[in-house]
Structure formats: C-alpha cells, structure tokens
C-alpha cells in the first residue's frame, strides 16, 4: 500500500520525497556522531554511542508515527534484508577481521574458538530447547522445534560494540578484551552458519533429516566459506606482492583493488551457496596479516581509514534504523510472554555458554593461566545482541510462514533494545564492580600473552599429572600451535609478503584492536 501510494505521485514529487528522506537520514547520522562525541568527551558511559543512535531512531520514528507524513517517511526507510547483507554487514564483518591485532587474537585463539564455536552452539541449542519447552508448557507462543533452533541460532549472535568501546576507554585486561572481541568476530560467522543450516533443514522436511547430515552440511558451509575467504586473501597477497602497484602513479589502482577484494570474496561464497559473511571475515584476517604489508604507506593509511569509516557509518545507520523501525513497523507485541521468557532463556543460555566453556578451558590449563571468575562474569555480561541478530531476524520474516517470523523479529528487536540500553549503559559500573578496570595501559601487560600471566598455554610443565594422556595430547597440541607460528614466520610470511615477518612486532604496540565503532571514533 505504501509503495502504491508513492507511485501515484509525479516523478518530480517522488524525487523530492527521496531527497527529503535521504536528508533526514544524513541528519540523523550527523546527530548520532555529534552526540556520541559529546558523550565520549564527557566520559558519560551510561549512554553509549550505540544506545544514542538507537534512541535517535526511536525519537524520529515516534515523531513520524504521530505525524501526517507517516506513509511517505516509512517509504524512505523501506529496504529489505538484502540491503543489510549486501551493503551494511560486509564492511562491518570485514573490519572486524581486518582490525584484529594478530598477537592477542592468535595468542588466545584456542579459548576464542572454544567460546565462539562450541559456546555459540551450546547457547543456540539451549535457547532453542528452552523456547520449545516453554511453548509445550504454555508459557509462551509455541513454535516448531526447528524454528526454535533457528531462533536460538540468530539470537546467539553477539555484537558487544558498546562494551568494547567502553573497554577501550576505561582500559581493561588485554586478555579479557581479546576474548570478548575475538568471540564476537567468530561468533557472527558461527551464528549465521547455524541459522542457514537450520533453515535448510526446515525447508527439506526435518522429519526425514539425519542428524549426521545436518552436521555435515554445517561443516560444509563453514569450512567451505572459510577456505574461500582464506584463498581470496592469499590470492590478493600474491597479487599485491608481484604486481608492482606500490609506485606513486598506481596507488589509486592499488587502493581500488584492495577495496574490491573483500566484496569479491563475499560474492564468491554466496555464488557457491556458502556463507559470504564467514568468507569475508577470514578474508579480512588474512589480508591484514599478509596483503596489508605489501601496500605502500599511503595506501595502508587510506584503506585503514576507509574501512574504519564505512564500518562506522554502517554500524551507526543500523542502530538508527532499528530504532526507527521499532517506532514505525507493526510488531507482534501481543506475544509479550514470548519476549519475556525469551530474555530469561537467553540469559540462561549465555551463562551456560560462558561458564561451561571456561570450565573446559581451565580444566586443561595450569592454575596460574586459568581464566579468572571475574573475567568469566564480564564475558557473560558482554553478550549484547545487535546488527547480526537483527538482520537474521528480519530475514526470518520471509523464511517463516504463519506469522512465526514476525514473532521472532519482534522478540529479537526487543532483546536488542534492552541489551543495548541496559547492559551497554551499565558496562562501566560492571567493570568497576568486577575490578577489571585500569589494567589496559600496563606497559608490561603485552608480555602476558606469551608469559606466565597470560591465558596462553605454553608447552610447559605437566604439573605432576603423572602421565595423564589427555594432558600429553594437549601438550602435543600446544607444540603444534607453536609449530604453526614457526611455519607462518619462516615460510608463509616470506612467501606471501615482501617482508621478513619482523613487522608483526609493531602490532604489539596496539594490543587492543579497534572495536567496530569505538576504534574509528576514538582516534
């Protein structure tokens, strides 16, 4: 109805309406950045930047909702979920991988993978099962089991942009920051793979599906997407190493090619029926580690600033749109019980995720390298929901029939708003209460990643476990990890870059990588 109304106007009127709509969007973006700067400058952590953007969208949407121009304004913001996945999410996900400092990320890689892969799987299953049981017990609207698992997968995607920006501002333990940031980077990839796997299972008659084939399909999607992303990253490294583009009159071409490679990776994976988000994430990690050093200095500065810029704009616009959509769209608010119990179940699932994974990690680590309880609590508290959960929920509106997708979308929107406003606004108080503030600027902290104070297990003592086979295999795994580091330093880095591998040392000067929004704004 909205589109037909818009089509009745003359081309001149439609162009004028489009211009006013774009102007309104630009004004909200400018206001969001200005308000965010003022809040950061005055160290007002009770209203993070993401929360401010969300509130701006809510206010403007509320004003539009009570005005006579509701239909026209809603048409200006009426875009499909494809807009998220094709234009907004790719730069955000690429920047997550590209901005990740290698040392703290790979030093804590075992713990990060455990939280992001196993933990996300646990959170998805626990959420899905609890929502299904809640429906059976008539506590909430009843959804089919596979759709419950789809909801569990999409709502397990964490996006702690507000927490990470405050982590940077206040200064916190580098290992804790690396865990939160690293989990959020890989968690998005895991969540979207789980969601798409469950969507395929649902469309292929889940009653006849073999659980083993579901696992195989998930591994096929995840590993295939990872391989595509890594392959594109290595290809770009070789191109920039041997093409000789780092001369003055070819720097524009160098920058253009570098910017195009991430989207090439994304479209390649999507064209092969894989996950473009997973692919572009690992393309970002590989391109930062290998391709980036093959660029000229001017090109390095440009691509870093460029991806900071577009990811920050995309993230801000998403939060503004979420606020605007909440005020303007028709939601299934009649299912308040579904929203309330979903929030409770998600909190339970997050706790099960963090504490069970931390227990497994600490089980195989010496006492002086275990993840302390206060860091586990901070991890549990940092499980905000954001852009990825919102985009997948928007897609579920079309994937699920009989209004089930709309129920999930409404619940996800409410959860995103509550976590961003409440958890994001109380992060500073949480950090002080857990006494994890002020460790981020310790000049000796960087040594903890490879020393006795860090989380990184080294191939050291078995601490008198008297031939425990599990610990012996763990020791072998630690040595293999060290061997991979040696392989990277001695073979991969010299082969794919024009450097000798020593450039990694400067990355340690900034062990806290930029968050998706905080890194750009905080500089």
Automatic annotation (TrEMBL):
Domain of life from the UniProt record: Eukaryota
Cellular compartments per GO CC: endosome; plasma membrane
GO BP terms: regulation of intracellular pH; sodium ion import across plasma membrane
Biased composition (Acidic residues): 501-511
Molecular-function GO terms, alphabetical: potassium:proton antiporter activity; sodium:proton antiporter activity
Reactions listed under catalytic activity: Na(+)(in) + H(+)(out) = Na(+)(out) + H(+)(in); K(+)(in) + H(+)(out) = K(+)(out) + H(+)(in)
InterPro entries the UniProt entry points to: Cation/H_exchanger_CPA1, Cation/H_exchanger_TM, NaH_exchanger
Bilayer topology annotation: Multi-pass membrane protein
Protein location: Membrane
Keyword Secreted applies: no
Disordered: annotated span: 494-523
Keywords on record: Antiport, Ion transport, Membrane, Potassium, Potassium transport, Sodium, Sodium transport, Transmembrane, Transmembrane helix, Transport
Domain (Cation/H+ exchanger transmembrane): residue spans on this chain: 32-432
Membrane-spanning intervals of the chain: 20-39, 45-64, 106-133, 216-243, 263-286, 306-324, 336-358, 378-397, 403-424
UniProt xrefs under PANTHER family: SODIUM/HYDROGEN EXCHANGER, SODIUM_HYDROGEN EXCHANGER 5-RELATED
Family: Belongs to the monovalent cation:proton antiporter 1 (CPA1) transporter (TC 2.A.36) family.
Protein name (record): Sodium/hydrogen exchanger
């Amino acid at each position: 109805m909205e589109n037909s109304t818009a089509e009745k106007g003359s081309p001149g009127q439609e162009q004028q309406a489009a211009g006013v709509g774009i102007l309104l969007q630009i004004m909200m973006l400018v206001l969001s950045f200005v308000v965010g700067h003022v809040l950061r400058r005055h160290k007002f952590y009770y209203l993070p930047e993401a929360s401010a953007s969300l509130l701006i969208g809510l206010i403007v949407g509320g004003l539009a909702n009570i005005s006579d121009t509701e239909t026209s304004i809603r048409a200006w913001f009426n875009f499909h979920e494809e807009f998220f996945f094709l234009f907004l999410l790719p730069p955000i996900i690429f920047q997550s991988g590209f901005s990740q400092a290698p040392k703290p990320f790979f030093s804590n890689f075992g713990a990060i993978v455990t939280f992001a892969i196993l933990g996300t799987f646990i959170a998805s299953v626990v959420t899905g099962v609890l929502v299904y049981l809640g429906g059976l017990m008539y506590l909430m609207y009843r959804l089919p089991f596979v759709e419950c698992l789809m909801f569990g997968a999409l709502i397990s995607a964490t996006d702690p942009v507000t927490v990470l920006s405050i982590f940077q501002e206040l200064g916190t333990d580098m290992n804790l920051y690396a865990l939160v940031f690293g989990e959020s980077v890989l968690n998005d990839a895991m969540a979207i793979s789980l969601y798409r796997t469950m969507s395929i299972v649902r469309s292929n008659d889940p009653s006849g599906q073999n659980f083993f084939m579901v696992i195989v399909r998930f591994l096929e999607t995840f590993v295939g997407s990872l391989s595509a992303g890594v392959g594109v990253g290595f290809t770009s490294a070789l191109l920039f190493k041997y093409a000789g583009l780092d001369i003055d009159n070819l720097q524009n071409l160098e920058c253009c090619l570098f910017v195009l490679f991430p989207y090439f990776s994304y479209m390649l994976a999507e064209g092969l029926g894989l996950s473009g988000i997973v692919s572009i994430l690992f393309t970002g990690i590989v391109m930062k580690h290998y391709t980036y050093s093959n660029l000229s200095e001017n090109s390095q500065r440009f691509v870093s600033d460029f991806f900071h810029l577009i990811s920050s704009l995309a993230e801000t616009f998403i939060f503004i749109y979420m606020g605007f959509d909440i005020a303007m769209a028709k939601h299934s608010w009649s299912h308040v019980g579904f929203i309330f119990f979903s929030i409770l179940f998600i909190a339970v699932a997050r706790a099960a995720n963090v504490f069970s994974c931390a227990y497994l990690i600490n089980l195989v680590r010496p006492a002086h390298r275990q993840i302390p309880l206060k860091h586990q609590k901070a991890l549990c508290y940092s499980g905000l929901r954001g852009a990825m959960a919102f985009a997948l929920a928007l897609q579920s509106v079309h994937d699920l029939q009989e209004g089930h997708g709309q129920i999930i979308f409404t619940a996800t929107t409410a959860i995103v708003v509550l976590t961003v406003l409440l958890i994001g606004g109380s992060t500073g108080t949480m950090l002080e209460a857990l006494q994890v503030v002020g460790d981020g600027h310790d000049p000796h902290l960087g040594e903890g990643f490879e020393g006795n104070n860090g989380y990184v297990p080294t191939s050291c003592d078995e601490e008198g476990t008297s031939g425990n086979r599990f610990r012996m295999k763990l020791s072998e795994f630690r040595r293999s990890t060290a061997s991979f580091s040696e392989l990277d330093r001695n073979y991969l880095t010299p082969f794919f870059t024009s450097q000798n591998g020593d450039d990694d040392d400067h990355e340690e000067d900034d062990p806290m990588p930029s968050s998706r929004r905080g890194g750009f704004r905080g500089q």
